[in-house]
Design goal:
single chain; alpha+beta; Beta-Lactamase; Alpha-Beta Plaits; 5-stranded antiparallel sheet
């Protein structure tokens, strides 16, 4: 009996030992599981942090590229004072940053509409009416609900107003894309940042252009002045000789203009000069190549041979003679001399001498006529 008890006690002892060992193994497994779960959680946190770091790095990289793009654009702007060059560089810079997207810039014109000034890689209207709904929303800073009619409905686009330093409207800039699905809020923010920096360069270039233009014009008549005439004559002669094209110079003088000032006063004399200047430019169909040389003397540069230039000169004389400049019906006339390439000279100075001699002949022959060298 005692033997059986000893055997039973041993079995119980072994069972207890195995139970304790099993419980120990279970505890170990639980601890290992908790450690594994903690490691997994740590890994998840590290992966999440790694992903966050990747996002932060991408944002920093994007901001760095934006800053570099701005610096490069500002450097390009500072190198020029020509408005068209500034606008061209702005469109190219925007297209470059936005990976080749199409860019167009319209500038506010004198009539209130917006005129195309520069573009890259897209066909767009040359003029945008000021009352188009999408344009008004852009200028007001409100995203328009629909794109312009000439932008395909499924084509991504964005636009922003181009303002000067005082917040006055200069124009509007639009981007379109053939490759992206949409433009983001960051894209429009960066576009506005670029335009904010470009506004100063555009405004400075516009002011320089105005000053430069005024320096080339006769203050009274609005035609080119003597300095502009000298520059244009040199350029036109050189270009005509290089291309073997015809070219003629007209010198015109108002007959007896001193009597106008003596009889009607200098105010009326100035009015007559302005009206005759307009008649000469219109009749010769050369508004950009008509000049006031000083006093009552004018010049016109024509890409015509001598015979055609003489005919144009006769038309100018006729237009002036037909106009009554005063309430009493008094009329005025012109005398015109014509010189042409290459028969009358191949240098600007030689053409001037030949045209002046022809003008003197027109006056000596009785005035109100055209004479050719």
């Amino acid at each position: 009996m005692s033997g059986f008890l000893r055997v039973g006690a041993l079995e119980i002892l072994f069972a207890l030992v195995f139970t304790v060992l099993a419980l120990y193994d279970v505890g170990q497994l639980r601890r290992q599981r908790r450690q594994l779960e903690a490691s997994i959680q740590t890994s998840r946190l590290e992966a999440r942090r790694l992903a966050e770091l990747w996002v932060e790095n991408a944002n920093w990289q994007r901001q760095y590229r934006q800053a570099r793009a701005l610096i490069e654009l500002m450097g390009e702007f500072n190198q020029v004072m020509d408005l068209q060059v500034v606008l061209d560089r702005l469109t190219q810079g925007l297209s470059r940053f936005f990976a080749g997207d199409g860019v167009a810039i319209w500038i506010l014109g004198a009539g209130g509409n917006f005129e195309l000034a520069a573009r890259v890689m897209q066909e767009v209207p040359s003029v945008i009416r000021h009352d188009e709904a999408w344009l008004r929303r852009i200028l007001d800073g409100t995203p328009p609900p629909v794109p312009p009619s000439w932008v395909e409905p499924d084509r991504p686009w964005m636009a922003a107003a181009l303002l000067d330093l005082l917040g006055q409207q200069l124009g509007v800039v639009m981007l379109t894309s053939d490759r992206r699905t949409r433009y983001t809020a960051d894209d429009i923010t960066f576009l506005r940042a670029i335009l904010g920096h470009a506004a100063m360069a555009i405004q400075n270039a516009a002011r320089f252009e105005i000053v430069d233009t005024l320096s080339r014009l006769d203050a009274l008549t609005g035609l080119g002045n003597r300095g502009e005439f000298d520059r244009s004559l040199r350029d036109e002669v050189a270009g005509a000789l290089l291309a073997a094209m015809p070219f003629s110079l007209l010198l015109a003088d108002i007959d007896y203009f001193k009597q106008v000032n003596d009889s009607y006063g200098h105010v009326e004399g100035d009015r007559v000069l302005k009206e005759i200047a307009q008649l000469i430019a219109e009749a010769a169909r050369a508004p950009n190549t008509s000049f006031r040389l000083g006093g009552e003397e004018f010049a016109v540069l024509l890409g015509e041979a001598k015979a055609a230039a003489v005919s144009i000169g006769e038309m100018v004389c006729s237009r002036v003679e037909d106009k009554a400049f005063f309430d009493n019906g008094a009329r005025l006339t012109l005398s015109i001399g014509v010189a042409s390439l290459p028969e009358d000279g191949r240098e600007p100075a030689a053409l001037m001498v030949a045209a002046d001699q022809a003008l003197y002949k027109a006056k000596s022959d009785g005035r109100n006529r055209v004479r050719a060298a």
